[in-house]
């Protein structure tokens, strides 16, 4: 594998196999990786990360901004629990204290959105 001290990309960068960065990499416009990328420490993104499949984290995916409550009173809702059954249910996957994995998603099939949880 070629080794470089520094690479400057002023437009777009496309990597068709693996990308390994041991220090820092700054990309001004876009980065497209068609196979895989491994980041040991931090990935700073000033915009949006889009994934065609999954974005995985060993511990946390965090939103750093604090949410703002709407000016209206909330409607009383419930958390819906679904037994396993839908494979590859899209949503936020979390591991429970027992080690089981659960997916959180919004069920608005009844017209009113409810937070739903399903064991994987």
Give a structural overview.
- The structure is a single chain.
- 0% of the residues lie in helices and 28% in strands.
- With 120 residues, it is an all-beta fold.
- The two termini are 39 Å apart.
- The protein has strands at 12-15, 18-20, 30-33, 36-38, 80-82, 92-95, 101-107, 114-119.
- Strand 6 and strand 7 form a beta hairpin.
- The protein contains no helices and 8 strands.
Number of strands: 8
Amino- and carboxy-terminal Cα gap: 39 Å
Number of helices: 0
Portion of residues within helices: under 10%
Proportion of strand residues: 25-35%
Described by the principal axes of the CA atoms, the overall outline is elongated
Mean pLDDT: 80
**Strand arrangement, largest sheet?**
5-8-7-6
* Spatial extent as radius of gyration: 20 Å
Order of helices and strands: EEEEEEEE
Which residue ranges are poorly predicted, with pLDDT under 50 across at least 5 consecutive positions?
none
Chart the SSEs and their pairings.
Blueprint: E1 12-15, E2 18-20, E3 30-33, E4 36-38, E5 80-82, E6 92-95, E7 101-107, E8 114-119
Parallel strand pairs: 1-3, 2-4, 5-8
Antiparallel strand pairs: 6-7, 7-8
Which short descriptors sum up this protein?
elongated; 120 residues; two-stranded parallel sheet; mainly beta; four-stranded mixed sheet
């Amino acid at each position: 594998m070629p080794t470089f001290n520094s690479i400057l990309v002023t437009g777009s960068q496309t990597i068709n196999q693996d990308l390994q960065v041991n220090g820092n990499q700054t990309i001004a416009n876009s980065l497209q990786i068609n196979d895989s990328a491994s980041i040991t420490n931090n990935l700073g993104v000033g915009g949006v990360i889009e994934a065609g499949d999954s974005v995985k984290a060993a511990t946390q995916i965090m939103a750093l901004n604090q949410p703002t409550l709407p000016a209206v009173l909330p409607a009383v809702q419930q958390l819906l629990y679904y037994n396993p059954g839908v494979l590859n249910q899209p949503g936020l996957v979390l591991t429970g204290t027992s080690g089981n994995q659960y997916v959180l998603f919004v069920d608005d099939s009844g017209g009113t959105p409810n937070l739903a949880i399903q064991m994987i």
